[in-house]
Design goal:
The protein is an alpha+beta fold. 19% of the residues lie in helices and 21% in strands. It contains 4 helices and 10 strands, in the order βαββββααββαβββ. The strands form 3 sheets. It has a 4-stranded mixed beta sheet.
């Protein structure tokens, strides 16, 4: 289960005042949206294949975790909560870089100049490392922005996160450390934009997001960070 801590796009905790009466209705809408984005209800998928995403309490949806063809992209909800959104991605291109995944973003694919070692680095260090698409696929998809269905559901990126899939250069994994190399000045990214990148890369590299992620840009690198959205054990049914 992945619990969103409820920080808004401005990086500050959301005040409860003025929102309590609207939360039940919002949860119903968000539940429907997430289930549609996930491809329909996932009841009967099995306990080990189920992750529960919570926006406060109670849980709003049961979603499959990252696996073959599926990644979790982190966008901000209409309530300014950083939430994982499931997305099915295209197969990696022959040059080793996955294509942009949004059905309406076919023009946002990275250029063909990427090297075959675009995901680079050391092999996974444990059985918990993700077996989904390479992390570069998830980060490229995130930078392409929400697709039409996600935008209709109200999901969005932080304003300082550029909507350009070509910004993603490559990702290097070294044990429990992931370097996300980007063609931009990472120091200009706000904290919410950094969280989107860190969380998307972390959960693409590790099933529980248990890695440290460094954002590397044209002017240097940022200190390693962990995703603020942490998994919570799913209770037996």
């Amino acid at each position: 289960m992945v619990r969103a801590r409820g920080h808004g796009a401005g990086g500050q905790p959301r005040p409860d005042g003025g929102h309590r009466m609207r939360r039940p209705a919002f949860r119903v809408v968000l539940l429907a949206a997430l289930l549609v984005l996930a491809g329909g209800p996932v009841a009967g998928c099995g306990i080990q294949e189920t992750a529960v995403i919570e926006a406060g309490s109670p849980a709003v949806a049961d979603l499959l975790p990252p696996r073959e063809g599926r990644v979790l992209l982190f966008f901000f909800s209409p309530a300014n909560e950083l939430l994982p959104v499931p997305r099915t991605v295209d197969s990696p291109w022959p040059n080793g870089v996955a294509g942009s995944v949004g059905p309406d973003d076919s023009s946002a694919r990275p250029d063909e100049s990427h090297r075959r070692d675009g995901v680079g680095g050391s092999p996974p260090v444990s059985g918990e490392m993700s077996e989904s698409r390479p992390p570069i696929a998830a980060v490229t998809a995130l930078l392409a922005g929400p697709d039409k269905a996600e935008r209709r559901a109200g999901f969005r990126s932080a304003p300082s996160l550029p909507r350009a899939a070509s910004v993603a250069d490559r990702i290097v994994t070294r044990g429990r450390t992931v370097d996300v190399e980007l063609r931009l000045r990472v120091t200009r990214l706000t904290a919410p934009a950094r969280d989107q990148l860190v969380c998307t890369a972390a959960y693409a590299a590790h099933a529980q997001g248990a890695v440290s992620v460094s954002l590397v840009g044209q002017e240097g690198r940022l200190a390693p960070a962990e995703c603020p959205v942490r998994p919570v054990p799913v209770p037996a049914r």
